[in-house]
Design goal:
about 260 residues; mainly alpha; elongated
Length: about 260
């Protein structure tokens, strides 16, 4: 946002512009649903990245193992989780580039995310089963952020600018993550203090995160973002058809596909 609009202006000016842009875009149909999906995804991925050692140590309650093995698992899963985030984004992003089924792909990713979160929340999920669940979680939760950003550009076109949308979503998402981390930490301490795992058979803090993600998915499904038309793609497709008729082809559609892939990456 600073580079594209306000080079040389002070931080206060940029902050004011970002705030006014956020308020303006929240009035556009479909944007709030995309923002909710983006925030839910970034919060979930950041929480699991931050508390992965806590999760593995909690799982040792049922299946003890040497500390050296635990440390190796944490390091391997941390790297594997990041790789699975990228793999999911590339896979689902490629399918959406070809089909433009943004809403359906995001709901599918949400379903996979909630399913794997529920498995992780179950105290009986340990060992290799827990490892697989964490990697699958990364695969499903990873695509939601880039798809939500791209869908927001589509449904708000031409009223909102692409760079501003990404800046707003990243700012709100990172602020939400910063607030969610101490809340999740406090909840995990309370659960440990009251032995909620022993009483319920579930890692309650992770079950709570799964429930919050499910609420975000439900909001996205029931909001205007689910039915909002893909305005940018429609305009680009019409322009591409017109150019094809006049000179036998154009790179416009290809440029759009490349931009989608860039955002996915």
């Amino acid at each position: 946002l600073v580079i594209s609009h306000r080079v040389g202006h002070g931080a206060l000016d940029v902050t004011r512009e970002l705030y006014s842009s956020t308020v303006a875009m929240m009035r556009l149909p479909g944007f709030n649903a995309c923002l909710a999906a983006f925030v839910a995804s970034i919060v979930a991925s950041n929480i699991f990245s931050t508390f992965l050692p806590h999760l593995i140590m909690t799982a040792k309650r049922r299946r003890p193992e040497p500390m050296a093995t635990t440390n190796a698992r944490i390091a391997g899963l941390g790297a594997g989780f990041q790789v699975s985030l990228m793999a999911g984004s590339l896979t689902l992003g490629g399918l959406v580039d070809a089909t433009k089924l943004y809403q359906g792909a995001m709901i599918a990713a949400f379903v996979g995310t909630i399913w794997t979160m529920a498995a992780i929340a179950d105290d009986h999920t340990t060992g290799h089963g827990l490892d697989v669940a964490v990697l699958l979680l990364g695969f499903f939760v990873g695509p939601i952020q880039p798809l939500a950003a791209e869908l927001a550009v589509e449904v708000t076109f031409p009223d909102a600018e692409e760079n501003t949308i990404v800046a707003v979503q990243q700012t709100v998402g990172n602020l939400s993550s910063a607030l969610a981390v101490p809340v999740f930490h406090t909840l995990s301490l309370l659960c440990a203090e009251h032995d909620m795992i022993g009483k319920t058979g579930y890692r309650v803090e992770y079950a709570t995160l799964a429930a919050a993600t499910a609420l975000a998915a439900l909001y996205f499904r029931c909001s205007s973002g689910w039915t909002a038309p893909l305005k940018r793609s429609s305009v680009n497709a019409a322009a591409g058809d017109a150019i094809d008729e006049s000179n036998g082809g154009s790179s416009l559609a290809g440029d759009l596909s490349m931009r989608s892939k860039y955002m996915t990456l």
